Each structure stands twice: as structure tokens, then as C-alpha cells.
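HOLO CASE FILE
Compound: iron/sulfur cluster
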Amino acid sequence: MPGTKKVFVKTFGCQMNVYDSERIAESLIPYGFTETDCLEEAEVIVLNTCHIREKAAEKVYSELGRLRQVKEDRRSLGKPTIVTVAGCVAQAEGAEILARSTVVDLVVGPQSYHRLPDLIFRAQSESRRIVDTNFPEEDKFASLPDRSIARPAKPASARAASAFLTVQEGCDKFCTFCVVPYTRGMEFSRPVDSLLDEAGSLISRGVRELTLLGQNVNAYHGAGPDGKDWSLARLIGAVARLDGLERLRYTTSHPHDMSDDLIAAHRDEAKLMPYLHLPFQAGSNRILAAMNRKHTVADYLRLIDKIRTARPDIALSTDVIVGFPGETESEFQETLKLIEEVGFAQAFSFKYSPRPGTPAAKIDEQLPEEVKSERLHRLQAVLASETSRFNEGCIGRVIPVLFERRGRRDGQLVGRSPYLQPVHADGAADLLGRIIPVEISQAGPNSLVGVIRAA
Ligand code: SAH
Ligand code: SF4
Ligand code: F3S
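Model generated. C-alpha cells follow.
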């Protein structure tokens, strides 16, 4: 029986937040909630937030500003609303959020959201504001409802054929610019058995592609059923053997943990897609050391060589930061040079944003905004031309596409290539959730268009 109460969840930030939002929505199902896209009908509103850059964190406050009126209008109709800030801003700012925004009732960190049903109950019955940003001893994942019992909160979510599965969380690397070790806590890996169970539940819901998630996913070292710690490569092997699963991906990896067995998996595991997101952040060894990245430019290039030897058609993706404190023009040029040397299919680039509590924010030589913007602009021009080159290289090829949703136009479907490019093609809705050969006819800056060859 669907519940009568409604929860509205809005997600900011990374894929792990997307995963957490699904678990948050599902955890409320046993308490009579269903998910809604309509703010005005929600008893519970959850903003699942991101603290990675200043802009991301500030978005939350503009969103909370908009919620004030919604909450007020509901109150005047005699309908109370619990506004919850979850995620990494909740962890970083805690009770400060209550002081800055009176509209907020609950603040819950990424490691304690399994307590949300109880917190909502307490906030309602005791009518008080609560902050829970503990890193509890109990395993969050073990306390959340089983995913085979919890029905999906939304009947057909956008990428129903593709799902995220968090296998590792937190980070011990402490790059000097980054808040993640503080917001997500120390690195930990989930045990293999519980991951295989969850993967099995997702497959029985119709999932055909899984993306294994972790802030440092390739540092995975979870307890295996044999009592030994398993590597990510071994976990990938076990998940790949699950019947019904057709594609596997993982993200985000750190160059330092890109082990030989994981590289070999790109050669040996047919279900592992030829795509790797491997952030390098900067192309100067001096900046990499100041970032505490634990790798040099030469280390990175050596890795790329090994990976391409194992899987020649692999599409590489990366993250780059421009304008780290003290970065000179010639150090920035080294970043451009590295990008041209590797040739990326896809990249995400950011202006350095000083974050509270991180060592890099305390460095004196912070660069002016105009310098950062100008460098970002030049960098993005180079990256865009590489992405276009990669996409154009697909024209004329027949590529297997996993169709995931309907397109904007009637009769159009959208799916993903093995290289993670969105592919648009005309086709019947019964192709959703299936992998179909598509002949690529056009390439845009961010997606491909093609014609279905056989169904
Ligand atoms: N765990 C991943 C990614 C973490 S955050 C990794 O280690 O690569 C995602 C990306 O945000 C980072 O790769 C980095 O490029 C960017 N980022 C993190 N902190 C930032 C900051 N203070 N300013 C600008 N970009 C940042
Ligand atoms: Fe942040 Fe570095 Fe950890 Fe990635 S490896 S999450 S960039 S501290
Ligand atoms: Fe943002 Fe937290 Fe993810 S800071 S990038 S939501 S780990």
C-alpha cells in the first residue's frame, strides 16, 4: 500500500549524494511516505547538500530562502513541514545552519541519515530543532531497510536501468584543498556479502548497469566471505558474475590506488565498461606536492600507458583544478600540456575555491578571481575540443547503447554508450532497459545521435 505522507528530496553534489538520496527516500517508505516532485505537498523536505566548493555550499541557502514561503503557506493551511538539511554542508556547518536559517528543523550528516525516521518523529512530537552530525559506531548501511523489500520510492526513476552502489566511503588522503575527509569521515569499505546482496536486489528491480561508488573507490578493501580483505578488482569480479547484470563501472579513483589487478580487470572483465575517471588535478609537480596528491606527472603518465595497454579503447576522464594558491602561468601551462598529452574523452574543471578548515585555504598566495576565471576559460576551450574530437571519432561506428529514458521528443530514447556518452535515437519504449546496437550519425559537444541497427 503506498503511503499517504510525502517526502521531497533535492540532491546537490556528487553521485554518492544521489545514492544517499535514494536510500533516504526508501528509508521513509516503511513509515508511510512516498516521494513527490511537488514541494507544496511534502510533509518532509530534504536538501541533500554538497560542500565541495563555496558556490555549491551557498546554493543551499538560496534554496532555503525559497522554502520559507512554501513552509509558511503550508502552515497557514494547518500543514506542518519538517525541513531537513542533510549531506556534506550539514556535516561541515552543523548547528550553524539552524542559526543562519530559521526555516530548518533538522540537520543530519552523511553518516547518520539512517536515523532520519526517528529524528523526524522527535522533531514533530517534541517540536524542537535537532542536529545529528555524529559519526556513529553502528553501520549506517546495516540499519537502512533492505533494498529488495523497500520498493523504489519513485515508480520509474530516470535511470532505472542504471544504478549507483556505494562500496566505499570517506577519504584518508587529505588533499590540501578538499573538504571530503572532514565531511565524509575516514575511509571505510563495506563488506562484500552485503554489497552482493544489495547488487542482487537492484538487479531484481531491473537494473542492468551498476556504478560502484566511493570517494576513493579503488582504495576499496572490504571484508570478503573468506575472511580476507578483498580489493576492488576482486569485488568487480564477483559483481560481474551476478546474472542479469550487463555493465559495470566504478568511480572515483585516485591514481595512487590504481593497482595492477584493477588495470588487468579492464582487460579481463567483459562487463567492465571501457571508461575510467582518474582525476589528476594539476600538471605541475610543485603544485601536485602542495596539493598533497601523492603522485607526480610522470606517475600519472605511466599509469595511463599501462591502462591503455590493458584496454586500448578506454575513454579517459579527469578532474582539474585551476588557480591553486601560488600557481604561476607556466605551472598552469603544464596542466594544459598534460591534458594534450593524454587526450581525455571527458573532463570536469574547477576554479580553486578556498574551503574552511583546509590547509590550502591558509596559504598566503591566493590568486585573484580574474586570473582563475581566465585560466579556467582557456582550459575549458582545450577540454571541449578534446571531447568533440572523441565524440566525432564515434561517427559511423555501431555502438551498443543501454537505453535508460525517453527523450524530450516523442519517440526518442536516450541511453549511454560504453564510454558514458549520452546517445539519442528514435525507438520504441520497450527498448528501455536493453542494450541495442546504434549506428552513430552525429556528434555534439556532449552527446551523440544515432540510428538503431537491430533490436
Ligand atoms: N575523491 C575524488 C573527487 C573528490 S571531489 C578524487 O579524489 O579525485 C571532486 C572534484 O572536485 C575533485 O576531483 C576536485 O577536482 C574538485 N575539488 C575538490 N575540492 C575543491 C576545491 N576546494 N576547489 C575547487 N575544486 C575542488
Ligand atoms: Fe578529496 Fe583528495 Fe580525498 Fe579526493 S583524494 S576526496 S580530492 S582529499
Ligand atoms: Fe560534495 Fe560531499 Fe560529494 S562535499 S562532492 S556531496 S562527498
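CASE NOTES: The two ends are 36 Å apart (CA to CA). The chain has three domains: 5-136, 141-392, 398-452.
CLOSED: yes
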